[in-house]
Amino acid sequence: MKTSGDRLKALLLECNLTPSDFAAQRKVTPQHVNNWFKRGVPQARLDELADLFCVRRRWLRSGEGPKHPTPLAPARCVPRDIAPPPPLQGLDTGMAHLPLHHLQQGSLQALPGHYQPVPRRALDALQVSTEKAICLGMPGNNMLPLLPEGTLLAVDRSFTRVVEGECYALLHNGRLRVHHLTLGQNGTLCLHSHDRLNHPCERYTAYQRRVQKVEILGWVFWWSCLRPARPG
User: Fold this and answer.
1) What angle do CA 8, 190, 129 make, to 5 degrees?
2) Which CATH superfamily does the domain covering 4-62 fall into?
3) Interhelix angle for 19-26 vs 30-39, to 10°?
4) What is the rounded average pLDDT of the residues 68-90?
5) Whole-angstrom Cα distance, residue 190 to residue 9?
6) Which one of 47, 68, 188, 194 is at 20 to 30 Å from 118 when CA atoms are compared?
């Protein structure tokens, strides 16, 4: 694969996407896509397409460096003389009750008398303070299939530092959102959805974050959901 156009064509094959379907999804003409195959991906589209296919911009542009941004680390073997830790969901653990919140007039409000029990051992293992943890409902479908809409999420309000690829709850102009986050150049905040094909990456500079009131509420450390319907 000598050119970025060749690499784009290979990515479409990996995703079982035809050039015409890809053009429709990106809202361009099939001729545009054919031109990208022949002449290479335009500079203005590199970030967008790299995020879309979860590959590194440098690799897409030049073929250099690793293809994926976060290659999986090799599994570590547990020494035989060290016993595995007990399951965090063990029945003998005490339970912490995290308050459920909802969005009301652009701000989070607790629902009186509504709590979600979570094992204290799990919170201790994650170093999450009960006083700083809340529960929310997944507000949209951008994180499918990982987090269906309505999934119950637990959020650590004390952890707002961006760790690449971790999942966070945010407020954006009074609207609740949930995304994977990364930091780009000059502190640009990048919002990534799990459903990358239908929800492209969004970028907000420090100025845009202030103007649009983008606030990181906290790190999503637990979630639970039921299937929406019985199969068949």
Assistant:
1) 135
2) lambda repressor-like DNA-binding domains (1.10.260.40)
3) 110
4) 55
5) 25
6) 194
